[in-house]
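Supplementary Note 2. Why include the ligand at all?

Several targets in our set were suspected to adopt different conformations when bound, so apo predictions alone were not considered sufficient. For every target with a known small-molecule partner we therefore ran a joint prediction. The input for zinc ion is given below.
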Amino acid sequence: MKFANYLMTGAFLLLTSMLLAQSPKIIQKPITWDKDRIQLSLDYLKNRHGLTQSAPVIHPKMVVVHWTANNSVRATFNTFNPTRLPGRPELTKASALNVSSQFVIDRDGTIYQLLPDSIFARHTIGLNYCAIGIENIGSRQHPLTDAQLKANEELIRYLSKKYPIEFVLGHHEYQRFRKTSWWKETDPNYITGKDDPGDKFMNELRKNLPDLKLNPLP
Ligand SMILES: [Zn+2]
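The joint prediction is reproduced in token form.
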């Protein structure tokens, strides 16, 4: 009996360490989440996505990968931290809620979490209500690194264990959902052109995630 207990404890410890090994290291760096941001998020869900909710939560079904077009996590944090958009009239007209994403990955692959992964963030028109956003420090001039590719893989694999993720897309691919039932945006003319993070990075990323059995993009 005692020996059986030892075996079970051993199996349990092994399982626990395997699960822990599969979770990437994530550094918490929360942006402002106050009453105003909660209300603006609820307003966005209602006015833009046509969804009346009592809490600004999402049920993640997809992950949208971005680059920040700036050169540091600090700059990204400072951009996302205010609750309201400073300027950007093409966006302010649709909602005063500031843009943000749930995660940002530095060029060395360090993962930071800015908001809980089931909390609403404004990063992709038409899809925010079901999409987790991952920002990557980089730009057209500074293409994303191999360390970022690896960190995106680990983070998305981890998120897929928590949520039924069906699609992994680049921000530049988001308009492919426009003619599908996934698209929820009340103004058909509210669209912005995006080129982040590009085909090369996204094709490599999806190629490295065959175990997730993702759906092909529409
Ligand atoms: Zn983007």
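Residues 152 and 205 are 8 Å apart (CA to CA). The longest strand covers residues 131-136. Comparable summaries for the other entries are listed in the accompanying table.
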